[in-house]
Write a sequence for this structure.
């Protein structure tokens, strides 16, 4: 479907749950195409909207908390996700964001067998829906930083897996939920390596946790391909934006 003229389009709401985990490459993608968006900074005390129809789409970024934590903003976010699904307003979730969508839709979010931090390969599922989202991409290196995982909600089509995490992404119609981080920029990776240095050191026994040096060294080689995959995914997602 064609995107409406920009002056008629409602903004995409982008929810940030932690100061270092903003929209990253997604902001570049939207700005380049002059698609309007606004940041809702949960970490800075912004209120959770109640009506999803005020926006053309809802995007949920990452964060270090668990969707199972007793945090005051989680119930209204889950309610907003329900509202968006009921009104056919597309959802896009990155890591914690994917877990929020999953929990809202009745799936379980629990500890992954191993923690994944750093660059790691994911494989695209062999189905037509996956190909519509990922095009010709069959496998690629993506950035990870998670200790939990989700099961698939009812009606979900599996899109991505990794060796250490079976459910890396799924789609339900125009909604996309991911466990991995496709939104990364070099600047974000550098900031995360600084902010998360203690967590990396404490998790070094995991076979899926890279050293800070490995992450930084592999960024130059892996990031251009990841940005290309992000273009493909985001490009497919914006086709579903509401009027």
């Amino acid at each position: 479907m064609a995107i409406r003229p920009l002056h008629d389009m409602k903004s995409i709401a982008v929810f940030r749950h932690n100061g270092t985990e903003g929209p990253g490459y997604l902001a570049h993608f939207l700005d380049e195409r002059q698609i309007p968006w606004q940041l809702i900074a949960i970490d800075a005390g912004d209120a959770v909207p109640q009506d999803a129809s005020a926006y053309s789409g809802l995007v949920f970024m990452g964060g270090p908390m668990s969707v199972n934590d007793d945090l005051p903003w989680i119930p209204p976010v889950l309610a907003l996700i329900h509202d968006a699904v009921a009104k056919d307003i597309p959802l896009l979730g990155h890591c914690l964001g994917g877990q929020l969508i999953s929990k809202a839709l009745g799936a379980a979010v629990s500890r992954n067998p191993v923690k994944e931090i750093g660059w790691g390969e994911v494989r695209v599922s062999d189905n037509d829906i996956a190909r519509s989202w990922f095009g010709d991409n069959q496998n690629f290196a993506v950035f990870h930083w998670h200790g939990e995982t989700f099961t698939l909600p009812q009606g979900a089509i599996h899109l991505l897996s990794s060796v250490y995490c079976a459910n890396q992404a799924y789609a339900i119609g125009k909604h996309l939920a991911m466990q991995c981080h496709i939104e990364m920029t070099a600047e974000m990776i550098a900031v995360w390596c600084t902010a998360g240095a203690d967590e990396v050191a404490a998790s070094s026994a995991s076979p899926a946790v890279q050293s800070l040096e490995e992450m930084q060294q592999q960024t130059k080689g892996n990031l251009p391909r990841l940005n290309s995959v992000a273009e493909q995914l985001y490009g497919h997602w914006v086709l579903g934006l509401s009027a």
Observations:
- The mean pLDDT is 96.
